[in-house]
Amino acid sequence: METTPQSRAIWEEACRYLPDGDSRHSIFWNPYPIFTESARGAVVTDADGVERLDFINTMTTMILGHGPAPVLDAARQQMELGLAYNSPNRHQVALARLLCERIPSFDQVRFTNSGTEATLNTIRAARAFTGRSKFAKVEGGYHGTHDAVLVSLRIDPSAAGAYDHPEPVASSAGLADGVLDQAVIVPYNDVEVARRILDENREDLAAVIVEPVMGSVGMLPADPAYLTMLRDFADDSGALLIFDEVISFRVAPGGAQEYYGVTPDMTALGKIIGGGFPVGAFGGRSDIMAQYSPVNGAAIAHGGTFNANPVTMAAGVATLNELTPTVYRRLAELTEMLRQGIRQVCSELEQPVVVTGAGSLFGIHFGHGPLNHYRDIASTDKDLAGRVFIGMLNEGFLLASNLVGALSTSLGEVEVDAFVRGFRRVLQRQLD
Ligand SMILES: Cc1ncc(COP(=O)(O)O)c(C=O)c1O
User: Which InterPro entries does the entry mention (predicted)?
Assistant: First the structure.
């Protein structure tokens, strides 16, 4: 609080006009969030002029760091030609082509302005395609803020049924009647229990939606056997398999579906594909996407004034063009170096830890493993995590408040080494 008086002053003003001073729950923390003044490369500067190295990169979005020249150039060039049109634009076609070439499940794609709209459309498309209404989701899985998916995330496990019979729990006030009846909840990474629950509902399920790497709960990768089981269940039952790759798309050029070699029927995207501008996309098999064809009667309604905005699309194309297989390899190597560094520090300080992640994603969890699913993560030491988060902030490192992070190409070995040394100082102070 001593180093952030300006942030505090702006936040107090903000609270007069915005509930708790902001427009996103996910980035609020006590005593108040820090306001950003600018961001360049790996460095984020706050309203008090304090610089911090960015290890979360706008909740995993800024994979090239802040203000990469090719993306800024592409966005600037398009801005000179117009900010928003009442017609389609060429950049949309280029981005769609790039995505369809890279992502195994994409025959066709449509753009939205958020990951929320993307997951909403995957579930809607599955319902329309199968003529069924229920869908299955993983306990703890986050898929945005539309009604259907605001179920069983960040819940207290003791109020959510037995582990092997999880009950749908509302995770927000204001959901429509009947929302909970539509959701079937399965545990992550438990092939047997999840398959039994899915089989019990096999006639009713339009879809199963899953993050191949569970993001916001802690960068928890799927067991490959789990994804294969979901693929088999979908093939056996007629339900569609949906991957929410809003976060996990950054693990490989073709996303986590390429990384795991399991191809879903539909995929939702967001974050990195807009180069820092608001974006989402959903796509999949052409027979499912045909439901969005106006020429064929547009079975599914889909509008959006800013969908496929030309500036966003140009920034997305420029971003993906930078993301070569070599870049992914380098990011994965650096992130593994960070994970190993954290494990080493915790081992030396005798603090039990599980460091999770895949590709450029990582999560730090204090406690004993193994961590397979949401209930395991819920039992880790959140109090210590919260104190380490504030400690890292004071040492000059940005993470999400539950100690998950994502690297960018603006970070190198020097910064990763500095992060690990900062982590050691912070943890040592907490344990003394
Ligand atoms: C896995 C996942 N799905 C969906 C969303 C929603 O995306 P958006 O915030 O763009 O609506 C998020 C956002 O963090 C996410 O992590």
Answer: Aminotrans_3 (IPR005814), PyrdxlP-dep_Trfase (IPR015424), PyrdxlP-dep_Trfase_major (IPR015421), PyrdxlP-dep_Trfase_small (IPR015422)
The helix-helix angle for 413-431 and 382-395 (nearest 10°) equals 130
The predicted pLDDT at position 216 comes to 84
**Residue 285 in 3-state DSSP?**
coil
What pLDDT shows up at residue 27?
85
Task: Strands of 91-204 (E only): list them.
Answer: 108-112, 134-138, 161-162, 165-166, 183-186
DSSP 114: S
DSSP 157: G
Q: Ligand 1 centre from 408 Cα, in Å?
A: 19
Q: CA dihedral in degrees (325, 327, 329, 332; nearest 10)?
A: -140
432 carries an active-site annotation: no
**Could you tell me if the CB of 138 is within 6 A of ligand 1?**
no
Residues 210, 230 contacting (CB under 8 angstroms): yes
Q: Is 382 a catalytic residue?
A: no
In whole angstroms, give the CA distance from residue 238 to residue 207. 9
Report which protein residue has its CA nearest ligand 1's atom 9: 115
Q: What is the mean pLDDT of residues 303-332?
A: 98
Tens digit of pLDDT for each residue in 73-111? 999 999 999 999 999 999 999 999 999 999 999 999 999
CB atoms within 10 A of CB 289: 20
- Closest Cα partner for 4 from 53, 49, 48? 48
Taking the centre of ligand 1 as the mean of its atom positions, its distance from the CA of residue 115, in whole angstroms, is 5
Amino acid type, 414: V
Q: Could you give all domains of the chain from N- to C-terminal order, each with its CATH number? A: 5-63+325-431 (3.90.1150.10), 69-322 (3.40.640.10)
Rounded-to-integer distance, Cα 34 and Cα 37, Å: 10
Task: For residue 284, list its beta bridge partners.
Answer: 108, 266
Ligand 1, pocket-test mutation among 58, 114, 213, 246, most atoms within 8 A of CB: 246
| Active-site option among 46, 137, 142, 265 | 142
Distance 244 CA to ligand 1 centre (A): 9
**Residues whose CB is less than 8 angstroms from the CB of residue 373 and which lie 6 or more positions away in sequence, other chains included:** 138, 139, 140, 187, 188, 189, 190, 220
For residues 48 and 3, the answer to whether their CB atoms sit within 8 Å is yes
pLDDT > 90? residue 28: no
- Among the listed residues 54, 244, 265, 376, the single catalytic one is 244
